[in-house]
Amino acid sequence: MSAVPEGTIPYLAGRAAQPAALERVAARVSEQLASSALPSDIRRPVFVGIGASHAALALPLRLLGEDGIATRRELAGDLGPGPVLADADLVIGVSQSGRSTETLEALGQVARQRRAALVNASPSPLSEVAAHRIDLGGEPDSYASTIGYTGTLLGLTMAARALTGHTPGQITAEWAGIGAQLEAHEQAVGAVVDEVAALAAGAVAADVIAAGAARSASEAGALLLREVCRVPATALVTRNYLHGAMESAGQTLHVVIGDGREIELARTLAEAGHLTLAVTSAALSGGKRLYVARVPEDVPLPVRTVLETVVLQRLAAALAATRGVEIEDFVFHNADTKTEEPVA
Question: Where does residue 86 rank: exposed (0-12), middle (13-18), buried (19+ CB within 10 A)?
Answer without folding.
Answer: exposed
